[in-house]
């Protein structure tokens, strides 16, 4: 979809775009031109995006967005964690801000919409207000968060966690990237310091609300034939490490009835994992994505299987219930096969439900723009999940072609992007009016 010729990506975006969506100051041409400019930074040979956290590519993208913020008349600042803020003062400067934005870093060879869509949608709201002469009652800020994806140090949401005071700096300074570079060395290369990170916590009492626009990274909106959706909650992941311990033996000389095959037990368990979530909750999911067999020989009965189950839900009660049921099933199946089972929870992140107050406001914004509301959960983590633990937060999802994300084939039509801008604009105007 993207070629190295400068105008091809934008041309693809504009192809078939309904220009009647250009109204109320919103411009699809401006939005697409900016998305195309960002796509050139860190462009890979596979036409993907390579802008990992604290890289020169992420910095270049941030600086480009800063230039657009300045041209839009915003007061631009950067905190000690490298988060970029563009502030438009409201009629009443003393009121808490409404904030919108996302990130511009990517996974290695990722797509061009994950993150930048939310940043540019937030900026387009300001551009539209310039055209219409609208001024909000309270301040409005656009944010570009640092290192949301976390590809460099195996743990993301670093910028949003910094402003919320959730970073453990003693833990951060122990981190090393794949090239052996320490966290401190990497951030210093980006012009940042450990002390700056420590001092980047904001006064959260001066944030009224946060709204993030993001591609869905799934296929629900496609199935519903809807350009946008309202997120009802952001799932918290619970990871179980489960080990099945059997007995190794010769594959030829050990009778079938005399075996304690760890892989047979583990295989039966994996089959059940896909069936358990729907018995617990409509929003529950569970996945076995990593599995190791020991000793892993062609002619050896497996003595041990170690696997990980990724369990998610937007409700803490059902998340806990599902985690217990999956562990119980592992023990049950192990017993049937004469295989011992051990398990431990290696990750437990609380889900963040979106408050009904925010859901209602976003639903009304969707309706106001002539779109049928679709409600859906987010199975992935986002900066809104971090902010949502502290301030009123919401998310607007935008349709993803074939549900593809973190991939050069990631695509969202310009029409869907612009409709998301209109929904965001309506919701921000509502939030800043109070």
Automatic annotation (TrEMBL):
Claim: Hydrolase is one of the keywords in the record: yes
Enzyme class: hydrolase
Domain Peptidase M20 dimerisation: 235-330
Xref: Pfam families: M20_dimer, Peptidase_M20
Keyword match Transferase: no
GO MF, one example: allantoate deiminase activity
Enzyme nomenclature, EC number: 3.5.3.9
UniProt keyword annotations, A-Z: Hydrolase
Gene3D superfamilies xrefs: 3.30.70.360, Zn peptidases
NCBIfam families per the UniProt record, alphabetical: hydantase, PRK09290.1-5
Protein family according to the UniProt entry: Belongs to the peptidase M20 family.
Protein name: Allantoate deiminase
